[in-house]
Amino acid sequence: MADGSFRCNWCNVDGVIRNSTFYKSINVDKMKKIKELCFILLASAFGLGLMPVAPGSFGALLGVGIHLAIVRFVSLQNQQYALIAGLVVVSLVHFMLTPWAQKHWRESDPGHFVLDEVAGYLVVPLLIRTGPVWFIAVGGFLAFRVIDIIKIPPARQIDQNIHDAWGILLDDIVSGLYATGIIWIAIKLLF
Fold first, then answer.
1. Local mean pLDDT, 10-residue blocks, the chain (191 residues)
2. Which residue range(s) make up the domain with 22?
3. How far apart are alpha carbons 111 and 56 in whole angstroms?
4. Are 172 and 152 a contacting pair, CB within 8 Å?
5. pTM of the model as a whole
6. Are residues 182 and 125 part of one domain?
7. 110 phi/psi in degrees, rounded to 5
8. N or C, where is the chain less crowded by C-beta within 10 Å?
């Protein structure tokens, strides 16, 4: 049916459902608010991206948390797979929520929508497998955030010219690749 209801020609299933106590107890407005809250929490990296100052930096901290949780709780031989899974899940949620976030915050690349920063940071530990974990986490975070803010080409061109889910994500992935290079060189020189 066009209105989303189910109608049966030989029974009154739709009428029975609509007149049931369960159906009447559902508060549609409350459900919409809960859905909106869930979307805000996911899009903002569980509220980290809602900070009034540097929401991208605060949001990227979720990536650091995911990285450190994987190092702590996943066996060494499975950490690479877990980081790939984390990056894929964050990216998929990013793609699913981009249209909603753009509409909700009325911007083509909303500042509070920080899943791209989470994914961008995760590139660093995914590609760097040697060196002290603390250095990869702290150095990778700082290098990623500085490079993401500066937007070294081609990240700048991607940011300026592609305003869909791909563009929002790719400029951060490029920044993550640059940060990976810097951290790799630093590890070779320092450790």
1. 52 57 70 93 97 97 98 97 98 98 96 98 97 98 98 96 96 98 98 94
2. 1-43
3. 7
4. no
5. 0.86
6. yes
7. -60, 135
8. N
What distance in Å separates the CA atoms of residue 183 and residue 142, rounded to the nearest whole number? 10
Q: Are residues 123 and 108 in the same domain?
A: yes
Give the number of domains in the chain: 2
Q: Are residues 38 and 55 in the same domain?
A: no
The residues near 67 (Cβ < 8 Å, ≥ 6 apart) are 83, 86, 121, 122, 125, 136, 137
Measured between alpha carbons, how far is 50 from 46 in angstroms, rounded to an integer? 9
For residues 89 and 115, the answer to whether their CB atoms sit within 8 Å is: no
Q: Length of the chain in residues, anyone?
A: 191
Which residue's entry shows tokens 């990285």?
67
List CB contacts of 119: < 8 A, sequence separation 6 or more: 63, 87, 90, 91, 94, 169, 172, 173, 176
pLDDT per position as a tens digit, 94-115: 999 999 999 999 999 999 999 9
Q: Report d(CA 126, CA 80) in Å as an integer.
A: 6
Cα first-last separation, the chain: 66
